[in-house]
Amino acid sequence: MEKKLAIALDVPEKNAALEILDELEGMDLIIKVGYSLFLREGFDLLSDIKRRGFDIFLDLKLHDIPNTVYNAIASAVDMDINYLTLHALGGKDMLSKAVEAKGSSGIKLLAVTVLTSHGEDYLEFLGSRYSIQQLALKLAQTAIEAGIDGIVSSPFEVKELKEHIGKDFISVTPGIRFEKEEREDQKRSATPEFAIREGADILVIGRPVLRSKNRRKLVKEILQKLKNA
Ligand SMILES: O=c1ccn([C@@H]2O[C@H](COP(=O)(O)O)[C@@H](O)[C@H]2O)c(=O)[nH]1
């Protein structure tokens, strides 16, 4: 598939969001809206995003009992969104119900494996007998078997997932940072070049773009890297 860039619109409210959307208008981008902005601004903001020609990635990271996730996704299919996340940790039954609720709608369901803010120490703390790589693969395999469209992981797991999962899927990688840039809370972060090389299909980037003095220029540069891949 054509490689894409998702901008994480992690800003506190609508005016800040619109300023960024206006700056990026006309570019071939996915706009990722997390639950903090969505809870504050709701569907109106999603319409603003669509009106500017962007695809919408609603990052709600659903994780609940199967029936509740089924109902959430049944509601989501009526909205004009392109991608929606849920946690693979919710298990096979939850993932299968999500796929059932999605039905024939065009929405792409993306399963989050191990958050990019976690390191091996967190799995040790949980008493896991799996490494991050192993757990991400196990969760991704379960999600893809259930019929989920894509997998969210750090760039470090992409190659292994692509090699071991016998089906096509969309690989989505947050945790993107430029060389020598502050990683903040991202423990498994990598450069755009690395993520592309490993086979990621959608790169998700938030703060490095949001804090840039010239967001449009920076986004253009990343899009060029994706185009050249
Ligand atoms: O494992 C995950 C899953 C989702 N995210 C989300 O991606 C962006 C990353 O933002 P940055 O500012 O580039 O760190 C953010 O919205 C997260 O909620 C993730 O980082 N890791």
From TrEMBL:
It comes from the Bacteria. Pfam families: OMPdecase. The keyword Lyase applies. Substrate binds at residues 10, 32, 59-68, 116, 177, 186, 206-207. Residues 4-222 form the Orotidine 5'-phosphate decarboxylase domain. The keyword Glycosyltransferase does not apply. Pathway: Pyrimidine metabolism; UMP biosynthesis via de novo pathway; UMP from orotate: step 2/2. NCBIfam families: PRK00230.1 (NF001273), pyrF (TIGR01740). This is Orotidine 5'-phosphate decarboxylase. It comes from Persephonella atlantica.
